[in-house]
Each structure stands twice: as C-alpha cells, then as structure tokens.
UniProtKB/TrEMBL annotation:
Signal peptide: none annotated. SUPFAM superfamilies: TPR-like. TPR repeats lie at residues 12-45, 46-79, 80-113, 114-147. PANTHER family: TETRATRICOPEPTIDE REPEAT PROTEIN 6, UDP-N-ACETYLGLUCOSAMINE--PEPTIDE N-ACETYLGLUCOSAMINYLTRANSFERASE SPINDLY-RELATED. InterPro entries: TPR-like_helical_dom_sf (IPR011990), TPR_rpt (IPR019734), Ycf3 (IPR050498). It comes from Echinicola rosea. This is Tetratricopeptide repeat protein. The keyword Repeat applies. Keywords: Repeat, TPR repeat.
Length: 231
C-alpha cells in the first residue's frame, strides 16, 4: 500500500488545496512551493498564479506579488480577483494611479465587490482627489456604517476638501466606534482648534491622542493647551 501511495501523483486540485492550507497557517513560503507545483502541471491555472501573488503580498514582497497578479490577469482577464489584488499591491507601494486603474477594472468586472470602495478611496485620498475619495468612503459606509477607519479617512478627505465641520462629525463617529486610534483623536483636536477655535475640546482630544501614543500631539499641547504635555 505504501508503495502504491508513493507512486500516486497528487492532482492539481490537491496541490492547490495544500497550498491554501499552508496560507491559512501563514506558512507562505511553503504555500508558494505548492502553487509552483500546480503551475508546473498547468501553466494556465489562474487561481494558483493569483494565490502565489497573495502569498508574496502577505510577506510584504510587493513586486513579486504584482508580477504574479499580472500573470493571473493575463491567464483570465474576466476575473476581478487579480485586478483587486493588483490594486492592493500598488496601494502598498503608494502607486496610487495604478491602484485606481486596477480597482476600476475589478469593479467593472464585478460591481458587487464592495471591498473595492474603501481601498480605492485610500488611493484617491493619496492622489488628493478628495471628492472622489469621499464618494468611495460614503459607498463603503453604506455597506457597513461601523467602519471606524472609513470614517477616519473620510474625515481626512473632508479636511482636504475644505469641509472641516463635516470632518469633525466623521471623526467623532470614528472615535465612538474605535477609541484606540490616536491619529483620529489628534486630527479631531487639531480640526476643532483650527476651524472652530474650540480650545477646551481640542486640547482634551489632543491629550487623549498623546495618551494613546500619538506623539505628534505633544507639540500642539505644549504650544496651545497652556500646560506642558506629560513626559
């Protein structure tokens, strides 16, 4: 029996499933080995190329991830997944224009992929296209209104779009959902003081930001809040 099993060659699906199992265990190098074996058997196995790209992505190897996502895209231009993943890799590299192009392609191939909204919003924010970014964050929040980071980044876009009052509202929603985001408390405090001259509220939020480890708040507290920040 042992000799018989040794002689059996695993199928593409078995190798692919083994790679996915290793991915779930965060054994990305081992996963890539399995995906390579799948590709050796079938160079047109789109899912293996895409999954191999994801394994590189999870290791922070953006260029290797991009190369594999592009191969997957070439093998099957009708699947949204390689475009979405390619957009995410470009986003990590701060290649915002390339990210948006691929998010747009992913969305056109499958309009029901609502995860695209938030990530495309981040890319548009990076490009300082604030109105379009706000629209994407709004769409993301329609799907799930309890996304603290979506409210936070929407607020950054609103500040960039010269709408500090709505930005303050968005920041208050963000910190109500997640009271551990020092950057959100910092932006809330700075915006309250700069746009509304609300020193007491602003200082309170800046001190909360500093207490959460957001060191940029220290300078504002020392300069505008009347007492030295805690060391």
């Amino acid at each position: 029996m042992a000799l018989l099993l040794w002689g059996c060659s695993p199928s593409e699906q078995e190798l692919y499933d083994a790679g996915i199992k290793e991915m779930r265990l965060e054994k990305f190098k081992e996963a890539i080995t399995y995906f390579d074996r799948v590709i050796e058997k079938n160079p047109n196995h789109t899912e293996a190329h895409n999954a191999k790209g994801v394994a590189f992505f999870e290791q922070g190897k953006w260029d290797e991830a991009i190369a594999n996502f592009k191969v997957a895209m070439e093998k099957d231009s009708t699947s949204y997944k390689p475009y979405l993943n390619l957009g995410n890799a470009y986003l990590e590299k701060k290649a915002f224009k390339d990210a948006v192009i691929n998010y747009n392609m992913a969305s056109s191939l499958d309009p029901n992929q609502t995860d695209i909204y938030y990530n495309r919003g981040l890319a548009l924010l990076g490009m300082e296209q604030y109105e379009d970014a706000i629209l994407d964050f709004d769409n993301a929040l329609q799907v799930d209104p309890n996304q603290a980071l979506a409210h936070f980044n929407r607020a950054k876009a609103l500040v960039g779009n010269n709408n500090p009052l709505e930005a303050i509202n968005a920041l208050k929603r963000s910190v109500a959902i997640d009271d551990t985001n020092g950057a959100a408390f910092y932006l809330l405090g700075v915006t309250e003081m700069s746009a509304l001259n609300k020193k007491e509220e602003g200082c309170m939020h800046l001190k909360t930001a500093l207490g959460l480890g957001y060191e940029d708040a220290r300078e504002w507290i020392d300069e505008f809040c009347g007492t030295e920040s805690e060391s």
